[in-house]
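Colleagues,

For the teaching module next term, I've prepared a clean inverse folding example: a structure given as tokens, and then the sequence designed for it. I'd like students to try predicting residues themselves before seeing the answer, so please don't circulate the second half yet.
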């Protein structure tokens, strides 16, 4: 089951560069804590903490495969963040377009 996305927590989580690195690492395929830790050059304890934060805000999900926990990007969580930010895009693009047109016409 997909966890609900807490946008405030998600943005706080995304503010950390290690968490953004971890998201990139689990974007395309599920990975274990050890795999992520090795690739991110972090300790397993630090990686576990970051993955817990990402899971709690709905940006990653985990499954069990035997004794291993595998983590992967939660596409619904990423989509919620993208949708929130996307609401600002049309307004900003329209303002940019208007500014360019004023400059061109002037």
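(Answer key — instructors only)
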């Amino acid at each position: 089951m997909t966890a609900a996305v807490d946008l405030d927590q998600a943005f706080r989580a995304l503010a950390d560069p290690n968490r953004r690195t971890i998201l990139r690492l689990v974007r395309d395929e599920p990975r274990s804590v050890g795999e992520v830790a090795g690739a991110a050059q972090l300790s397993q304890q630090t990686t576990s903490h970051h993955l817990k934060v990402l899971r709690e805000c709905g940006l990653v999900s985990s499954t069990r495969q035997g004794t291993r926990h595998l983590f992967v990007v939660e596409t619904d969580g990423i989509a919620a963040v993208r949708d929130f930010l996307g609401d600002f895009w049309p307004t900003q693009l329209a303002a940019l377009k208007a500014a360019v047109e004023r400059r061109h016409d002037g």
